[in-house]
């Protein structure tokens, strides 16, 4: 099989983070947030990496950079264009710096026969209610609910087909797998860790810093002195 290609979307502004620059380039754990995801893919053996970038920013060494689009899905489409020969692609948000090689491998393994997309997800721990304004309409069955993350692994032709739709359809999609679902494709969830959360607010950034510091301490302890 041709090797899978990671498509990391890093072109968002990250307004809710309140940073002066794009979120993917905010320093977290001593380096731009984006770099942690690049490391996780490489640790899982995924060497071909395309990054959708904000204007004026360069891709990390060894990655292919493309200009991102106005909406997230437009950035995914731009990155996919640079992976024209890929059979399998992994779409990932640079805003999830706590990605691990184990999660990457589990998602790749999840793309079994007859599956169009395998997506990282964590079981929901809160009770989720649907409301009309502030009026509760119903309580959903939590045992069937998953909080969806990235990576989302796709058969590249299936992703290419759904991303060929109108810009307005793409702009309304909050993840890429929903486009596959709407087209009648088969999507599987792959159990992941809640630690692979998306950095959106300043509180998330503080939490990500703490987890990264903990991982670095654990790595240093394993490596031992010297
Ligand atoms: O804004 P949000 O946190 O949902 O963005 C998720 C990911 O999509 C981030 O990594 C962000 O950089 C990326 N993105 C992008 N192009 C956009 C909007 C978001 O690459 N136009």
From TrEMBL:
**Which keywords has UniProt assigned to this entry?**
Isoprene biosynthesis, Nucleotidyltransferase, Transferase
One MF term from GO for this chain?
2-C-methyl-D-erythritol 4-phosphate cytidylyltransferase activity
**Which InterPro entries did the record assign?**
IspD, IspD/TarI, IspD/TarI_cytidylyltransf_bact, ISPD_synthase_CS, Nucleotide-diphossugar_trans
- Quote the pathway field: Isoprenoid biosynthesis; isopentenyl diphosphate biosynthesis via DXP pathway; isopentenyl diphosphate from 1-deoxy-D-xylulose 5-phosphate: step 2/6
Positions the record marks as coiled coil are: none
Query: What GO biological process, any one, is recorded here?
Result: isopentenyl diphosphate biosynthetic process, methylerythritol 4-phosphate pathway
Q: What is its EC number?
A: 2.7.7.60
Read off the PROSITE patterns from this record. Answer: ISPD
Per the UniProt record, the site (Transition state stabilizer) maps to 16, 23
Q: Tell me yes or no: is Transferase among this UniProt entry's keywords.
A: yes
Residues at site: Positions MEP for the nucleophilic attack? 142, 198
Q: Which CDD domains does the protein's record reference?
A: CDP-ME_synthetase
Q: Give the superkingdom in one word.
A: Bacteria
Q: What does this protein do?
A: Catalyzes the formation of 4-diphosphocytidyl-2-C-methyl-D-erythritol from CTP and 2-C-methyl-D-erythritol 4-phosphate (MEP).
Under the heading HAMAP family, the entry gives:
IspD (MF_00108)
The record ties this protein, via NCBIfam families, to:
ispD
Homology family: Belongs to the IspD/TarI cytidylyltransferase family. IspD subfamily.
Please identify the protein, giving its name as recorded: 2-C-methyl-D-erythritol 4-phosphate cytidylyltransferase
């Amino acid at each position: 099989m041709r090797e899978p290609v990671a498509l990391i979307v890093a072109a968002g502004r990250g307004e809710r983070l309140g940073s002066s620059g794009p979120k993917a380039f905010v320093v977290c754990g001593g380096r731009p947030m984006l770099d942690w995801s690049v490391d996780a893919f490489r640790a899982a053996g995924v060497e071909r990496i395309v990054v959708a970038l904000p204007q004026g920013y360069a891709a990390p060494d060894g990655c292919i950079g493309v200009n991102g689009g106005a909406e997230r899905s437009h950035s995914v489409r731009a990155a996919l264009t640079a992976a024209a020969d890929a059979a399998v692609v992994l779409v990932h948000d640079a805003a999830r710096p706590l990605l691990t090689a184990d999660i990457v491998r589990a998602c790749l393994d999840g793309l079994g026969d007859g599956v169009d997309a395998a997506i990282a997800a964590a079981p929901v721990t809160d009770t989720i209610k649907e409301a009309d304004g502030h009026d509760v309409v119903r309580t959903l069955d939590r045992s069937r609910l998953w909080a969806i993350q990235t990576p989302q692994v796709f058969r590249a032709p299936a992703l290419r087909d759904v991303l060929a739709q109108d810009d307005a359809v793409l702009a309304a999609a909050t993840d890429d797998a929903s486009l596959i679902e709407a087209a009648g494709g088969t999507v599987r969830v792959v159990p992941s860790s809640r630690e692979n959360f998306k950095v959106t607010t300043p509180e998330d950034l503080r939490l990500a810093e703490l987890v990264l510091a903990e991982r670095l301490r654990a790595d240093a302890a394993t490596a031992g002195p010297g």
